[in-house]
Amino acid sequence: MSVAISAESLSKQYRIGQFRPAYGTLRDSLVNSYRRLRTGHLHEPPEKIWALRDVSFEARDGEVLGIIGPNGAGKSTLLKILTRITTPTEGRAEIRGRVGSLLEVGTGFHPELTGRENIYLNGAILGMKRSEITRKFGAIVEFSGVEKFIDTPVKRYSSGMFVRLAFSVAAHFEPEVMIVDEVLAVGDADFQRRSLGRMESLGESGRTVLFVSHNLHAILQLCDRALLLQSGQIVREGSTHDVVAYYEEQTVGGGSQTIWDDPDTAPGNDLVRLQSVRVVDAEGSPAATLDVRQPVGIEIGFRVLRFGKPIVPKIKVLDQHGGICFNAMDVSSRWNDPTAPGEYVTTAWIPGNLLNEGRLSVDVDVCTIASPKLIPNASAYKVVAFHVYDPAEGDSARGAFTGELRGVVRPLLDWTSQER
Question: What integer pLDDT is reported at residue 221 of this predicted model?
C-alpha cells in the first residue's frame, strides 16, 4: 500500500512578544527610547517558541489517521503546514493526490450571496469543477436541510443553517486526501450526527483521512491509527485504542491495571490484602479500551492472611464525573463461610451492551457483611479505569441511531410487540 501523506522532521517556530507598530506616535517613540535607555536594553531580543518540533509520520492510502492532544499541542499548526497555509521552519511534507481540507467550516462564504450562489463559490474555492458542483448540487442541498432557503442570502441564515450548508459543500468534495480539523465540535445534535456519518463514509470509501479532534468517541469510532501530540512533539503512535488509553491515563489518571509488589504496603488489614486489580476483555487479556458490545472483566487478586469472618469481593463503577453507575458484589454461597488463608483471583463480569460510551473508573473492596452495613477490609478507590466505545456497526444498543444516548448505562433490551 502506497504512502499518501509523508512528514519528515517537521518543525515550526514562531516569534512571540509585544507587538510594536512600524509607525507609532511621537509619544510612543519617546517612551520606548526612554525605557531602553533606563534598562540598558537597546534592543529587546524576540522570544521564540517551537509550535512543532521534529514531527515525522506517514499515512497510507485508505487509512484514517487520528491526531489527538491537549490545546496548544501543535495539532492545528501541523494541519496548516500540510494544507500549505503556512510553511515549516524545518523539515518537509509530501501529500500525493488531490487534497481537500475542512479546517474552518464556512471559509469563503459571502454573506450577500444566496445559498445557491455560495455553493458554487465555495465549491470552486475547494477545487471542484462547475460540472461537478452541478452534479452534486441536489445531494448538497438535501444533506444541508436548507432547501426552502437556498435562494435566500446567507446573511439571513441562522448560525446553524450557515454551518450546515458550509459543511455540506465541503463534505461532498471528493479528494484523494481529506484533512479535517474539529468540524464535529460545532452545530446542533442533528448536524453532528450527519457529520459523523459523512466522515465515516469518507473513511469507508478508501480515501485517506487525517482527522484532528478532541472528541475521543469519534476518534475511536472513525480512525484506524492515532498520533498523540504534546508540546509540539509526537509522544505516542499506534493503534487508536492504545493511544487514546495512554492519553486518558496521562490527563485523567488511572490505568487499566494496578499491582502491589510489596504486601506490607498493599491496601488491606490483618485479614486480607489486595495484590492486583486489572481490567480484562472476554479472553482475559488486559484491556484499556473495550467494544461496548463485549463483556468487561474487573479482575481482583487478593491474599487472605488468616481465618476470620466471611469476606465478599465488591466493585463500584463510576462515570467520568465521579457519579456512581452501580455497585456489585459477589453473592455466591462460596463467600458465606470463612475463607481459608491463601491467594485468590475473582473476576466481576460486566455484560456487553450494558455500559454507555465513555471513560469509567472502578473502586474495589474486599469487605465483610454486617447487615445493614458493609465493613471494608481492603479498599482501593478509582484503582483502574477503562474506555468504552461503539464502532457503530448497527448491532449494538444504539442500532442505526448515531446521535448521543444519555445515561451511564445503555442496555440492549429484549422487546416484544404485536399488532392489535
Answer: 77
